[in-house]
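We close this part of the discussion by returning to an individual protein. The amino acid sequence and the backbone structure tokens for this protein are reproduced below:
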Amino acid sequence: MTSAKSVKVLGIGGSLREGSQSERALRIALAAAEERGVVTELIPGPELVLPFYDTAVPERDERARKLIEGVRQADGLIVVSPGYHGGLSGLVKNALDYIEDLREDTRPYLDGRAVGLAAVAYGWQAAVTTLEQLRTITHALRGWSTPLGGSINSAETKFDEGGGASDEKSVRTLRLIGEQVAGHALLRAR
């Protein structure tokens, strides 16, 4: 049996702005996962500034290697993207493209891993369409989207530095996403 402390959930997302609304949302979900007893790691937006993914270029810089190894070691993931113009950010999409480097692994891509997803956008349309795109990408990478995903309208909900938000429902949703990812990872580790 694997101990809970050796089960890892990786959080990826946010924007280039430290402390962005999407990064704060991601931190809430990761905190809930950690409370379930798993180890969490965060790779926020500023650490996702990577060269454009190119399968023809085998060399990876330090940040790309950290991301790839983080995903490789993760038992579950939580991905939160800002919604820009109806879709996920190029920053998050490029990071997800790097998962292609895991194609030859024993556990290829996101195979067998629960992936919690949320989108934070200024308006419902972008929040919903961004979440749907994240789900489509997760399925293409053989990941299991958690039953609950989060579409958060930042015109109505503001996240604070203390790990809360102006809308308690958004906090509950993000916490449940984190709990679902951790729960699935713990079950698979048995």
Observations:
- The first strand starts at residue 8 and ends at 13.
- Strands lie at 8-13, 39-44, 76-84, 87-88, 114-121, 144-145, 150-153.
- Helices lie at 21-35, 62-73, 90-97, 124-140, 168-189.
